[in-house]
Write a structure and sequence with these properties.
Blueprint lengths: L17 E6 L10 H13 L4 H10 L11 E6 L10 H8 L6 E3 L7 E8 L5 E12 L3 H24 L4 H12 L7 H7 L12 E11 L4 H16 L8 H11 L8 E5 L4 E5 L13 H8 L1 H12 L3 E6 L2 H14 L8 E3 L16 E6 L26 E5 L9 H15 L3 H12 L1 H4 L5 H36 L1 H5 L12 H17 L10 H20 L7 E4 L10 E4 H9 L7 H14 L3 H9 L2 H7 L9 H12 L17 E10 L12 E7 L2 E2 L3 E2 L5 E5 L5 E12 L4 E8 L8 E10 L5 E10 L9 E5 L1 E2 L7 H6 L10 H9 L5 H20 L8 H6 L4 H10 L5 H4 L5 H18 L7 H18 L6 H15 L3 H10 L2 H5 L9 H12 L10 H4 L5
Parallel strand pairs: 9-11, 10-11
Antiparallel strand pairs: 1-2, 1-6, 3-6, 4-5, 5-6, 7-8, 9-12, 13-14, 15-20, 15-22, 16-17, 16-18, 16-21, 19-20, 21-24, 22-23, 23-25
Length: about 1000
């Protein structure tokens, strides 16, 4: 568990973060809601009606009491919370999604309650709970402005009646406007003024909506509803509450904590106590929205249909007159998904001004308010979605596989395209004129016609959308880098490490959704479910056709990347279309959306995403054919910045393709590079390899000894090595290679430099250093070695990318390390002790990291600077010179002699007087030694010692074996008096250090313990 760093304060667990009041700003007056007006324009255009006529009809023929006016955040407490910054626009929009609402004494004015959710960029949620009521308007200016608007409305009706006097509805409108003139004593006027939608400031009392809101980190809906209702009661009560209202606000913001897990919390409201409960760790998650009400509103059959669409990740739009019912059903659906979570767009209440979000080409769950008296039969649904007659009249649910954009004729589509083009080509002076008119709407009281406003508003809205996509791309790529770099990102100044924690898969899925939205913006015609994959298919067809016309064996889209391993590996082709073919050959993927996501993951893992997309967009003729002029992909400056943000992801390593598609078959190229020395560059024996990774191993694969390849270095010197390609199921990140041969032929001794393995799809190349002999009678007599891999840094990466990469895995033991062990003249006891302490500490830190960040335990046990390497140095300190023995002596020789002594002592009864515990320890050492020594594997003496250390660490026996080895008389023959192994204090220190590993469960990789049954 990660704690808070020493300079940062912990996030307080408060019940609520903000108390907010929204309503009318009497200083600015009545301001028309331009976004809502734009929404009406776009909706009319979507339905094929004349946008200007439709909007004008809805706007000017409508009573001012039913028009949309801007609300504002009048007050909030506190001003800002560090760990949850206040989003004023979002809170205002969701507190009053329709804007300000006006009423008179003749209208219904019952308080309403609803809740909402704000989802932040990092995926975290904040909950809002709103109590809306109507407050009398006391400002004479507001009342006068409403009176003026109403008179203008009557004048509009009069003009309409004059042009069509034969229409009875126009006559009624004219009579109404005349009666509502300046004759307060007229009885007909008096009766009409009280009709719905009428207003006379001399007789009517004007009311306006106002909202009290609590912003909380958790959805305690019932508790917040009761608190806000009591707050409203205190506001309108004739007598003051026991304490000032500010005291209650301060209490819930600063003094009421979040309930502890599994506990209930009771705190004092204004008039009565309030209770809430938080589930414990072993219980179901908090679900304070009544699930039974969701079933009651929709009915079981309809809710099951909606739930099915949710599981299929479709686009779902909920439709209701009541905001709280939208939240109840949306939260009910997501609650039923447990233990899964809805990872896509989730907006239970979609403000009218954001209706264009329904065009998003991604799965979503949204809620939209319907107007009173709306005729559902006028709602256009896709042909594949049937109307649900069984839905309750109080709630309508529309199940959308996609939002239907149908123009009645091709000419209408052409006209709309021409309008959009004209909107975007307005000169700056005209744009400024339109925007100036828009800003003055509030001052002039009367709204101009949308035919004058729409070009500038549409153009401005499109550019804001493009800028929003670019900003989102910047934020997502930065978020992915910070998450991947972890603590290193903190050191580089990217904030506290506590901001990380999202799963890598979630971040990459979010990036895939963003790319789909970018590629869907401004499409001429939608083709298929994935706009990105559709574009890629067009590109593929075009390039293949050009290659055929040129009659070229190597199409132009093929490049060659420099060899990742100098002279050892042939260069790997870099090809956008080749990567597409890899994806197209994967039978596991069934949809275009899945293929697009797989292609993105593969490109990201190969650090080619930005390069591939740049190549895709370089075919400008194709882009112009597929996309409208205002599309994001045709905005040159934004497109370049977008590609630059994606390029920054090359600074870190991703395995997002390899780790997800675990069952696919992957070709691997294996190259065995010998050391050209003493004519032993090659061998007459039959070599074999077994490649292991995090997902499994390839099994033993025989490599024909006559499979030779010759390459040349920069000085044109020839180099010969063995190379072969084999295909097996995805092994994941590679960890070890078992290399061996059968010792056959006249040249059976083989001096191997390293083994190179490359994933031929992702291009990841691993180097497994060896630097030692394989053969009987040479080195330690090993015919098989287990090599530890390190990921090779691609030679094409620049210095900045190298500096930010994840550190490479530690390598396997090499001949260089063996030489340093036998000499040891340059290393004192302090250095050896420090090496052991560091090796043990690295293993302990490994287990304290989150599981996804741990890496390979095999590297820490057997790699360079590992536990085995450190203990070898300890055992070699003071080891008598090989000249005394007339041959090379290994640590395993000492262990072998010690075990032989123990077994002979046990047979003659010398161990009878020892304690039972000591005898058991002695038997365990002999048992492990014999099991390792009798294995069919020819792993050599160093390999056997490595295996003994690994098994001893796994089974917590190492600290018990060391005293037994020290007490054997053999130590006097093989070690100097100054050896660390013969120093009691040094030995006790080593034992205490090794005992620190007993707190952890060490699991050994199968390649290490193969053939050992212990």
């Amino acid at each position: 568990m990660s704690g808070t760093s020493a300079g940062s304060a912990a996030v307080p667990c408060r019940f609520a973060h903000y108390f907010v009041i929204c309503g009318i700003d009497t200083e600015t007056g009545l301001e028309p809601d331009e976004l809502a007006a734009l929404h009406r324009w776009l909706e009319a255009d979507r339905q094929g009606r004349d946008p200007d006529t439709a909007s004008a009809g809805e706007n000017f023929e409508q009573s001012p009491l039913k028009r949309t006016f801007k609300s504002k955040v009048l007050a909030r407490y506190p001003e800002n919370v560090e760990w949850n910054p206040f989003d004023q626009d979002a809170v205002n929009m969701l507190c009053m999604p329709k804007g300000l609402s006006f009423r008179t004494q003749a209208d219904q004015r019952e308080p309403q309650f609803h809740s909402f959710i704000i989802t932040k960029e990092d995926g975290s949620r904040t909950y809002g709970f709103v109590h809306t009521f109507y407050e009398e308007v006391t400002s004479p200016q507001i009342c006068s402005a409403m009176q003026t608007l109403y008179q203008m409305h009557n004048a509009e009706q009069t003009n309409a009646a004059s042009s069509s006097s034969s229409s009875s509805s126009s006559m009624d409108s004219l009579a109404s406007s005349l009666d509502d003139g300046y004759s307060p004593t007229s009885s007909s006027s008096s009766s009409l003024s009280r009709a719905a939608g009428s207003y006379d400031s001399s007789r009517d009392t004007l009311y306006v909506s106002k909202a009290l809101c609590l912003i909380t980190p958790m959805p305690f809906m019932h508790a917040c509803r009761r608190f806000l209702a009591q707050m409203h009661s205190a506001v309108i009560a004739a007598t003051a509450p026991p304490l000032p209202l500010e005291s209650y606000v301060y209490n819930i913001l600063y003094e009421v904590p979040l309930p502890a897990l599994g506990r209930s919390l009771k705190f004092h409201g204004i008039y009565e106590p309030i209770v809430c409960q938080r589930p414990g760790p072993g219980e179901l998650p908090l679900a304070d929205f009544p699930l039974a009400e969701a079933f009651s509103l929709l009915g079981v059959e309809n809710l099951v249909q909606v739930f099915t669409c949710t599981l299929l990740e479709m686009q779902i739009l909920l439709y209701s007159q009541d905001y709280q019912r939208l939240m109840t059903v949306a939260e009910g659906i997501t609650t039923l998904l447990f233990p899964f979570q809805w990872q896509h767009v989730y907006v239970p209440i979609l403000p009218a001004s954001l209706l264009h979000f329904l065009d998003a080409p991604v799965p979503y769950l949204m809620g939209l308010q319907s107007k009173e008296g709306t005729d559902r039969s006028k709602l256009e649904l896709p042909q594949e979605v049937q109307h649900q007659p069984g839905l309750r009249s109080i709630f309508t649910a529309c199940l959308f596989c996609r939002w239907c954009h149908k123009a009645t004729t091709a000419q209408r589509r052409k006209d709309r395209h021409r309008q959009q083009t004209e909107h975007l080509t307005l000169d700056n002076d005209l744009k400024e004129k339109y925007m100036q008119e828009a800003r003055s709407l509030g001052k002039n009281l009367r709204q101009p016609k949308l035919s004058d406003l729409s070009p500038a508003v549409i153009a401005q809205t499109n550019w804001k959308f493009v800028e929003g996509l670019l900003k989102e791309c910047r934020m997502k790529t930065k978020r992915m880098l910070v998450e991947k770099m972890g603590r290193e990102a903190v050191e580089l100044g990217h904030g506290e490490a506590s901001i990380t924690g999202l799963e890598e898969n979630t971040l990459i899925a979010s990036l895939c959704d963003l790319l789909e939205r970018i590629w869907s913006h401004g499409l001429q015609v939608k083709q298929g479910k994935s706009a990105l994959w559709s574009h890629l298919l067009h590109y593929q067809a075009r390039e293949e056709m050009l290659a055929q016309q040129a009659d070229s064996p190597a199409p132009r889209f093929l490049e060659r990347r420099k060899s990742d391993s100098s002279i050892a590996m042939p260069s790997l082709r870099v090809s956008l279309i080749q990567d597409m073919r890899h994806i197209q050959s994967m039978s596991e993927i069934k949809t275009d959306v899945g293929r697009a996501r797989a292609w993105i993951r593969l490109s990201l893992e190969k650090k080619l995403l930005s390069q591939h997309l740049k190549q895709l967009l370089s075919r400008q003729a194709l882009t112009k054919k597929l996309y409208k002029r205002y599309a994001f992909l045709r905005c040159e400056e934004e497109k370049e910045q977008f590609l630059f943000h994606l390029l920054s992801l090359n600074a870190v390593d991703y395995f997002c393709f390899t780790s997800v598609f675990t069952t696919i078959m992957i070709p691997y190229r294996v190259v065995i590079i010998p050391i050209k020395k003493l004519s032993n560059a090659m061998t007459t024996s039959n070599p074999w390899v077994c490649v292991s990774g995090e997902l499994g191993d390839s099994g033993i694969m025989q490599i024909p000894k006559n499979v030779l390849e010759m390459t040349f270095d920069s000085a044109f010197r020839p180099h010969t090595h063995i190379s072969a390609i084999f295909k097996c199921q995805n092994l994941g990140k590679l960890t070890t290679v078992q290399l061996g041969h059968d010792n056959a032929g006249l040249l059976a001794k083989w001096l191997v430099d390293c083994v190179m393995v490359r994933n031929e799809i992702t291009g990841h190349t691993y180097r497994f250093p060896c630097g030692r002999w394989l053969g009987k009678g040479v080195d330690d007599g090993s015919l098989e070695r287990v090599l530890i891999g390190e990921l090779v840094l691609p030679s094409g990466e620049d210095d900045s990318a190298r500096a930010c990469r994840t550190p490479p895995l530690q390598r396997s033991p090499s001949q260089g390390r063996r030489i340093s062990i036998t000499s040891l003249t340059g290393r004192d006891t302090t250095q050896i002790q420090e090496g052991i302490g560091e090796a043990v500490n690295n293993i302990i830190k490994h287990f304290h990291k989150p599981e996804k960040e741990r890496g390979s335990l095999t590297v820490l046990l057997c790699g360079e600077n590992s536990l085995v390497a450190a203990l070898e140095q300890f055992f070699h300190h003071g080891f008598k010179s090989a000249r005394l023995f007339q041959k090379t002596v290994f640590v395993w020789d000492f262990v072998e002699k010690a075990v032989a002594y123990m077994e002979s002592a046990d047979q003659v009864g010398d161990l009878q007087e020892t304690t039972e515990a000591m005898k058991m320890t002695c038997q365990s050492l002999c048992h492990y030694f014999n099991a390792i020594n009798s294995t069919s594997r020819n792993i050599g003496k160093d390999g056997k010692f490595q295996l003994l250390v690994c098994l001893g660490a796994r089974d917590r026996l190492l600290p018990q074996w060391l005293p037994l080895l020290v007490e054997c008389p053999v130590i006097l023959q093989m070690y100097e008096d100054t050896a660390m192994l013969r120093d009691p204090s040094t030995l006790n220190t080593l034992i205490s250090v090794l005992e620190a590993l007993h707190d952890f469960s060490i699991t050994l990789e199968a390649s290490l313990v193969k053939g050992i049954n212990l």
